[in-house]
Amino acid sequence: MKVEGIHLAGIGTYTPSPTPVEEAVRQGLFEPGAARESGLLSVAVEPALSAPDMAVRAARQALDQAGHDPGDFAAVVHNGAYYQGPGHWSAPHYVLHRALDRPIPAFGIAHGCLAVLTSLQLAAGLLEPGSPGRQAVLITGADNFSTPMFDRWNDSELAVFADSGVALVASTRGGFAALKAVGSRSAPELEGIHRGNDSLLPPARYPDHPWRAASRRQEWAERPGAGPRDLLDSVNRFAELVAGLAERTLAEAGVAREAVTRVAPTGFSENSLHTLILDPLGLPVELSTWDHLRTLGHATVGDQVLGLAHLWRSGQVRHGDHVLLVGATEGLEAGCAVLEITRTARDTEGRTW
């Protein structure tokens, strides 16, 4: 979807002190061979702050940078891929109360690791230039896997799960980046990869390992009628999806592939990052934010924002540069956004962020 008049006015992040992968191996949390194959150096682990509280910290950074009055905001969209707190409770309103404290809508979307990118697409429909109360949307995302209910190190062979909070302020008044296009595309025939043999009614619940990503994928591969190449074919199908979506989104943005300065992808482990995203796009790892993500792990809804923040704050992208945000979630679905950098970090009110 081509986007006009929507900008990123603020960006905020919260990442805890990372745990070195070698320490996780020493403690018996991570198998040495899997640790080497991941390519990770460390993983962000937060033992105390909840996911919504990390989102609030990130939100306050983004709001401070954006400079909007609380009355400018149309909504808060808060997302997480994992449990945010008690059942039958609203984490989005918790974030709203502590970040803006306004009587505006607060909601989340169940879109997995693409939720923040999809929230940008929703923000484009909520905002109206010059209209009071519709000049900004606060988008937040956070997850915390520091619970005995989840094994962050071994639940998936594709990634190791990280704790973080991120925030963006989408604005009609300008900012440090212009949103040029955003969208997603799915391969719904592959939804069973993340379902496996689990029951839909009653809904399956696993107190020890509620996602079981690796075992569900294997169950799908061994389902009745499955072929020996189904897993490989699903990888190839997703690679085609990513390549096609990126081509479409760049065309909508009016940006040539050669004009992409950097790419902020999902924080997969090294081999999966190449297979699922970088190789389909024909991009070298040096253009990606892997150098940063390999110190954090897979921050679910926050990967692209963490990568963008790192690129912008460190001066690796400057005025006129184009950044491609690209990610994936169950479904299977891929998402992309194209940004044009319009201000450097040092230009933003004279501060270095």
Describe this structure in words.
Keywords: Acyltransferase, Cytoplasm, Transferase. This is Ketoacyl-ACP synthase III family protein. This protein is α/β, with parallel strands linked by helices and 353 residues long. It folds into 2 domains: 7-176, Peroxisomal Thiolase, Chain A, domain 1 (3-Layer(aba) Sandwich); 181-342, Thiolase/Chalcone synthase (Peroxisomal Thiolase, Chain A, domain 1). Helix content is 31%, strand content 20%. It has helices at 21-26, 32-38, 51-66, 91-99, 115-126, 213-221, 230-253, 270-281, 290-293, 303-313; strands spanning 7-14, 18-20, 42-44, 73-79, 106-107, 136-143, 164-171, 177-186, 260-265, 322-329, 333-341. A 9-stranded mixed β-sheet has the order 5-4-6-7-1-8-11-10-9, sandwiched between helices. It has a two-stranded antiparallel ribbon with strand order 2-3. The two termini are 30 Å apart. The relative contact order is 0.18.
